Amino acid sequence: MTDGTRLGDARHGVHRGFGIDIGGSGMKAAVVDLDTGDLLTARHRIPTPQPATPEAMAAVVRRLVEHDAWARPLGVAFPAVVSHGVVHSAANIDKSWVGVDADQLFSTTCGLDVAMVNDADAAGVAEMHFGAGKGVAGVVLMLTFGTGIGSGLFVDGVLVPNTELGHVELDGRDAESHAAASVRDRESLSWKDWSRRVQHYLRHVEKLFSPDLIIVGGGASKAHEKWLPHVDIETSIVPAVMQNSAGIVGAALMARPDNG
């Protein structure tokens, strides 16, 4: 630790970070205790602008940073493939994002260093540090079931970024178009009927990666007792424990000098 502010935090027993979690309907942020994963400030939420163009979202990022008077590096969890800070997909965001250097845009707007990370990867990082994946060796797969299906893949605790397993082809279509949590609502499926679709998807993923553990997160994990008992697969499968704070915590961890 060479940063003076960070050393000051250490003397008070707290290493702080700042994470922003960007979603289709809201952009949320908080200060994070990097040693425990606890949020040190209340989660502050601003609705995602519509249309969610780069310029409009950058302005919201600046407002979130200013709300907590944050003045050090921060992390941003983003709903797209992000490689070296550049956005490469736009399945659930405005198409104008493709090809944008989000690292540079947000850093310039805030005047601070920004570390970009895929949102499902961020949630997985949080679970591996403080949640259901803590201390688990081997291949761990984090899957988030919400509007789509997000994924975070870890090998002995090391993130393999941007796996986007919600878009693997299954029965001739994107898996998430058949098994995302939003599909259950849209098609008025019972939890048990939807769980059969999830099981079909998970068995396919098992064949591809032979994971040691699958962690399920996203909105559907809050009601895991209604559907997870109906899922019969070979791999151990558990609900995520970080819940709504996962993206914020994971993003904050990715902004650490040692990358969390």
Helix-and-strand structural type? alpha/beta
Task: Report the C-alpha radius of gyration, rounded.
Answer: 18 Å
CATH architecture of the largest domain: 2-Layer Sandwich
Gap between N and C termini: 13 Å
In CATH's first tier, which class of the largest domain applies? Alpha Beta
Q: Percent helix among the residues?
A: 25-40%
CATH topology of the largest domain: Nucleotidyltransferase, domain 5
CATH homologous superfamily classification of the largest domain: ATPase, nucleotide binding domain
Low-confidence stretches: 1-12
Please tell me what the overall shape is: globular
Q: Give the strand tally.
A: 14
- Domains (count): 2
Largest β sheet strand count, sense and barrel closure: 5 strands, mixed
- Taken as a percent bin, the fraction of beta residues is 15-25%
| Tally of helical segments | 8
What is the average of the pLDDT values? 92
Structure description:
It is a single chain. By secondary structure, this protein is an alpha/beta fold. It has 2 domains: 4-118, Nucleotidyltransferase, domain 5 (2-Layer Sandwich); 132-241, Nucleotidyltransferase, domain 5. Helices cover 31% and strands 24% of the residues. It has 8 helices and 14 strands. Strands 3-2-1-4-7 form a 5-stranded mixed sheet. Strands 10-9-8-13-14 form a 5-stranded mixed sheet, covered by helices on one side. Strand 9 (149-155) and strand 10 form a beta hairpin. Helix 2 (54-67) crosses helix 3 (102-110) and helix 4 packs across helix 8. Mean pLDDT is 92; it is low at 1-12.
